[in-house]
């Protein structure tokens, strides 16, 4: 199952209980389709770059939530009931690309990393070590010149 991020932008006056009700409703929907909710983040109230016009007015702030989930690919079509949700300003579903999780990751190369294939070397080249000695010529440590160059 691919990994998705569902971003929910709610109206700023919505109470926490109503937010949790909406999030749990989406979570139950994902679980009923054999999906897994892996992470839930709240970014709190954020300022929007432009006003979002709804029937109840124009909103310049919103409460942002992020739900990360592993779900079936048709989850996008199944979440369209969120369009009728009056507490939401916007919602967005983003699919993570080129990521492998669970058995997909373990089956690739039998889950073993062969360290002998990694290149060996230093972070610093040995040739550059002598370049640091040139800095001593810039300063005259002779006190007779007053420490000037």
Q: What class do helices, strands and sheet pairing give?
A: alpha+beta
List segments where confidence is low: pLDDT < 50 over at least 5 consecutive residues. Answer: none
Distance between the termini: 68 Å
* Approximate helicity band: 10-25%
Order of helices and strands: EHEEHEH
Could you tell me the number of beta strands? 4
Please state roughly what percent of the residues sit in beta strands, choosing from under 5%, 5-15%, 15-25%, 25-35%, 35-45% or over 45%: 25-35%
User: Mean pLDDT, as a whole number?
Assistant: 81
Read across the widest sheet, the strand sequence of neighbours is: 2-3-1-4
Main sheet overview? 4 strands, antiparallel
Question: Judging from the principal axes of the Cα atoms, what is the shape?
Answer: flat
What's the total helix number? Answer: 3
Rg over C-alpha atoms, rounded to the nearest angstrom? 28 Å
Task: Give your account of this protein's structure.
There is one protein chain. This protein has 149 residues and is α+β, with helices and mostly antiparallel strands. It is built from 3 helices and 4 strands. It has helices at residues 16-32, 75-78, 103-107, and strands at residues 3-10, 36-54, 57-70, 88-95. A hairpin with a 2-residue loop joins strand 2 and strand 3. The longest helix has 17 residues, at 16-32. The protein is flat. 10% of the residues are buried.
